[in-house]
Amino acid sequence: MEWSRDGSAKKLLQEIREEDFQLSWDRLQEQLPQCGFGILGICCRNCSMGPCRIDPFGENAQVGVCGADADTITARNFLRMVAAGVSAHSDHGRAVAETLIKVARGEAPGYEIKDEYKLLKLALEFGLEVEGKKIEDIALQVGINALHEFGNQEGEITLVKRAPLKRQNIWRKLGVVPRGVDREVVEALHRTHMGTDQNYLHIMRQATRCALSDGWAGSMLATELQDILFGTPTPIVGKVNLGVLKEDQVNIIVHGHEPLLSEMIVMAARDPEMLKMAKEKGARGINIAGICCTANEVLMRHGIPLAGNFLNQELAITTGAVEVMVVDVQCVMQSLPTIASCFHTRIITTSEKAKISGATHMEFSEENALKKAKEIIKMAIERFPLRKKSQVRIPAGEVDLVAGFTHETITYMLGGMFRASYKPLNDNIIGGRIRGVAGVVGCNNPKVTHDESHLIMVKELLKQDVLVLQTGCAAIACAKEGLLDPVKGLEYCGDGLREVCEAVGIPPVLHLGACVDNSRILVAATAMVKEGGLGDDISELPAAGAAPEWMSEKAISIGQYFVASGVFTVFGVTWPTLGSKNLSRYLFEEIEEEMGGKWAFEPDPLKAAHLMIEHINKKRKALGIDKARERVLFDMEMRRGLE
Ligand code: NFS
Ligand code: SF4
C-alpha cells in the first residue's frame, strides 16, 4: 500500500527514505498484527476480573467473567468512545465560553467581541433580555448561560430548539434529549462501569443522548462562541501543502484545535516589532502555517496557509524548516519531540491540559495570551539562525483554495445579499441540477493511503452532482487536490453541479471549518428543511455523511450525532462493533426506524460514495423529485434567474 496520496508528502517521504525517522506508518508496521479482538470491539478491561475477550468464532468463551456478552461489551466500548469524543469537543467549547466571560470582564487583553450580531442572536436563544444592555453585559450573560449548558442537570440543552420540530419530537419521544453535556458524559461512564447497564440497546440510548450533547451543545457552542470572539468566517482564499513553508522566513506551525492561542499568535506575528526582530536575524518575515483543526480555524478567519492534515504533522518537521511547532490539545502525536530532536525545531505545548515529554511547556491563559504569543514568536526567531541549510527540504508547490463557508455565507452566496436564503439551494436540488448534499469529514489514518479515500469519494460525489460540505482533515485533503478551487474543482463536477457553482462562483466543495464546525452542517441542514420543499425533517433531505479515513473517538461522537439527527453516515477503515451481530444490525439497520438515520461501514471509498448516492436517490424519490433530474441543463432564462 502506498503511504500517501499527497504529492508534497510523497516527495518528502522519498527524500527522507535513507534516514531513520520513525513515522506513524513505520509504527503501524511494528504493531502488526493488531489484536483481532480489539478491532472487533470484543475485549473488555473495565474491571480487574478481566481483561476478558469473546471468541468471535463462537467456539470458546462467549461471555466475560461477569457474564457480559459480546453485545454488552461492544456497546459499552462504543459508548465510551462517544463519551471521550464528546468530552474533547465540549471541553473545547467550554474553554471558549470561559474566554468570553473573561473578555466581558475585561480580563483578557487582546481579545474582543468581533460578531455582535451573533452574540445578540445567541442571547435571544438563551432567553436573555438585551434591550438597552451594554454589549459586555450581554457577553457575560451569554458566557454564563453557555457554561450552564455543560453543567445543567435537568431539562434540556437549549440549542435542541434549533432542530426541526419533527426532529425534536423524535428525540423527546425516545428520551434522548441531553440534559447537560457533563451529565451525559458522567452517566456514560457510570453506565459502562462493571455491572451497570447490560442491555446493548439501552446502552446505545445513552450513546445517542451523549453524542447529541456534542452536536447540539458542546461543538455548536464552540462554533458559535468562536464566531462571536474571532468573527464569523466569510469566503477567503488560501494555500495548502507542505510547500507553504518558506525557506527565507521564520516558520511557525500551529497545530491542535483551539484557536484561542493561535489567534493571538497570528496577531502577534504581524507586530512590526516582531518583524523587525526577525529581519535582524536574517529572515525575510514570519510565516505562520497550520496543521489539523487549528489550521482550519486560522485559515477560515485569516487566510493563514495550511501546511497539512493529521498525517502531515511529523513530515512537516522533517522539512527542517520549522522553527517551532505550537500545539495545544487533541490529535497531536507524542512522536513530535523525538523527530524534532533531529532538527533545530522546538515543540511547544501550551495547554494546562496537555504536556508532552520532551516538549517545551509554555502554558497560556487568556490573561497572558498575547504576551505568551510574543514569547513563542521570539523563541522561533531566535531559532532561525540555528536552522541547518543542509537539512532543509521543503517540497515545492502550493495549491490555491477558497475556504470560509458557513451557514450564513451559504445563504448570502446562493441567495444574494438582499434575499439571503436557502431557496436557491433547495430549488436547485428540487430542480435536479444538484442531486443532493454530502458532508465528507474526519481524519487520516495510516491504515489507508493518506488522503486517498477522501479524494476517491469526493470526486465520485461531484461527478454525480452532489454538493460536498467538508470540515477537519478531510477538507485539507481535498484542498491539496485543488477541489476547493472554484475553477479547478469544477473539472470534477457533473454538468448540473458545475453550472450552479459557476453561476454562483463557489467551489463544488465547501470548506466549513474545523471538526467542531460540523455543527454548521447541522444548522445548514436544518435551514434547508425550514426553507421548505424538501420535507420536514433532516432525515428527509437528499443528504448523507461520511468519514472515510476516520481514526479518533471524536469521529465516533460526530457520526453518532449525525445518525441521531437523521443522516445516513458511512465510515471507512475499520468498524468497532463488528464483534456483535446484534449491535451491528442495530447500528446499520434498526436504528433507522427510530432516528431516521443509520450507520454504514464500507472501507472501499468508491463503494461508500455509491451507498451515499443511492441513499440520496432514495430520498429524492420519496420527496417525488426524482424525475426532475432528467432536465438538468440551464436555459438562458433559468441562468438569468440564478444571477
Ligand atoms: Ni477532527 Fe480535528 Fe483531523 Fe480527525 Fe483530528 S484534527 S477534530 S479528529 S485527525 S479530522
Ligand atoms: Fe470481564 Fe466483565 Fe470485568 Fe469486563 S466487566 S473485564 S467483561 S469481568
What does this structure look like?
With about 650 residues, the chain is an alpha/beta fold. The chain has three domains: about 170 residues, Substrate Binding Domain Of Dnak, Chain:A, Domain 2 (Up-down Bundle), CATH 1.20.1270; about 150 residues, Rossmann fold, CATH 3.40.50.2030; about 220 residues, Rossmann fold. Helices cover about 50% and strands about 10% of the residues. It is built from 25 helices and 16 strands. The strands form four sheets. It has a six-stranded parallel β-sheet with strand order 6-5-4-7-8-9. A six-stranded parallel β-sheet has the order 13-12-11-14-15-16, sandwiched between helices. The chain has a two-stranded antiparallel sheet with strand order 1-2. Helix 23 links the parallel strand 15 and strand 16. Helix 4 packs antiparallel against helix 6 and helix 8 packs antiparallel against helix 9. The longest helix has about 35 residues. The mean pLDDT is about 95. Iron/sulfur cluster binds next to loops.
Number of strands: 16
Main sheet summary: 6 strands, parallel
CATH class of the largest domain: Alpha Beta
Give the class from helix and strand content and strand pairing: alpha/beta
Q: How large a portion of the residues is in β-strands, by DSSP E?
A: 5-15%
Shape assignment: globular
Briefly, what is this?
With 643 residues, the protein is α/β, with parallel strands linked by helices. 48% of the residues lie in helices and 10% in strands. The chain starts with 6 loop residues before the first helix and ends with a helix.
